Amino acid sequence: MQVETARKLVTEQLDTLSNALASGHSEQLQSYLTAMARFHKYSLSNVFLIMLQKPEASHVAGYHTWRSLGRQVREGEKGIAIIAPMRLGKKDDLQEGTASEDESVVRFRTAYVFDVSQTEGEPLPGIGEANGEPGTFSDRLRGLIKSLAIELEFSDDLGGALGVSKGGKIAVKSGLPPAQEFTVLVHELAHEILHHRKDTPRPSKTFRETQAEAVAFIVAQGIGLDTGTASIDYIHLYQGDAKTLLDSLEEVRQAATEILSALLADE
Fold it and tell me: How far is CA 234 from CA 33, 66, 118, 135, 169, in A?
C-alpha cells in the first residue's frame, strides 16, 4: 500500500466516522476508543488503518517482533499496512533547499504488521486480565500519580462528585468499588495531564469532561476492565466535525498512551 493511498483511507475513515457521529451513532466512536486501548502505541492514523483492514485485530506487531516472541507469521497471511517514519541522513537523501548539511530528512514508507491471530507458536505473556478487578494496576496508578508530584487524597464528601482534579491535587470519594475507583482516578489524572499542564485557555467543561472520560475508557480497556457503556455520551462533543474529532482524539490518545505505558511497563 502506498503512503498516499494509506492517508486517503484515513481521511475517508474520518469522514465516515464524522458522519456516523452526526447521525448519533455513538457505538462507532466507542469502537474506535476500544481500538485505541488495543493499539495505544500507534498513531491515530495507524489505528484507523489497522481497523480499516482488520477490524478484529487485537495485538499487532511486525514480522521480526513476532519471531523474537517465539511466534511465526503463518505462510500466506496478508500484512496490515501502516505508515512508518524513516529518518534519512544527509548523504542518503539531501535535497538542495530542503535541509542543511547538519539536518536529517524524514520520509514516510509503508510498513506491514500482523495480528496475533495470523501467527502461531509460543503463548503471549498476559497483560494483567482484570475481569472487573484492577488488581495491582491500582497500586501502579497511585504510584504514577505520586511520581508526577500530584497529591492524592480520599474524602467522604466531594459535594456529590466521585473525583476532583485541582491542578497538582486529586481528590477521590472514599469507599468506591475497586474498578470504579480506578476509572475515576484515571479520569482525574487525565484532567491533570490534559488541562492543568498546558499554559493555554481551558476548553469548555463538556470538552474537558469528554476527553477525560475517553482516556479513562481507553486505559480501563487496556488493562482488561469491563467498561460497559462508558463512552455512550461522547458523541455530543464532536457534532460531526472531522477536524475537531481528529484533534481531540489525538490528545486523548497521547494522554492514554502516557498512562498505559507506565501501567504496563513491567508486563
Answer: 10, 35, 33, 27, 26
